[in-house]
Amino acid sequence: MNHNLNNEIKEQLTQAIKENAWDKLTSLRNNEGDPGSVFYIDSLDLANRDLGAIPTDFLVFRNCDLSNSSFAGKHFFPMAFWSCKAQNLDLRNTEGMLFAYRTDLRGAKFDETTQLVVENSDLPSAFKNCLLDEDFAQFLVSQGALLDFPRDKHIESYAFGVTDLGNKQ
To answer: Which of 38, 95, 149, 169 is 20 to 30 A from 83, comparing alpha carbons?
Structure first.
């Protein structure tokens, strides 16, 4: 989480995520965080989960296992994966800005309804130092996604405009 939260709140947030209690997660996030702040989910095993109902705006999954999970039908703006395992991630019928850094996205599922470059957005989706299947990489490039972003930028500063990275937990 991008803001300092006491351990009790952190545990409640983690428990809400584990239980798919997305309303509780949204409520805790809104009550404890600044509006529009980047929200981090760290080091959770979310493999084989339907994550279509998780609130994904300004969300970063960091060091999480998202293998065989699904965001199918989800709209997000923006969402990021940082050093995640996300093999066979279902991105069919999704739309939004997606940023990934050092993430294994081999076997990602996508279709003609997957839209990872949003018209009139400030930035295209970007994937840096990721493991991608050739088909998925070609799909991303055909949509206008970047397979790199500037070296002098951290994923947060590129994707979210965050400049104060010292508060990360």
So the answer is: 95
Alpha helices per DSSP H over the chain: 7-18, 22-32, 134-143, 155-159
Token pair 């940082």 is found at 82
DSSP 72: T
Residues in the chain: 169
Over residues 112-165, the pLDDT tens digits come to 999 998 887 777 889 989 999 999 999 999 999 989 866 666 666 666 665 443
In the chain, the amino acid numbered 121 is S
Three-state SS across 80-119? EEECCECCCCECCCCEEEEEEECCECCCCECCCCCECCCC
pTM of the model: 0.82
Vertex 70 angle, CA 118 and 161, to 5°: 40
**Sheet strands side by side (includes 75-82):** 39-42, 59-62, 75-82, 95-101, 126-128
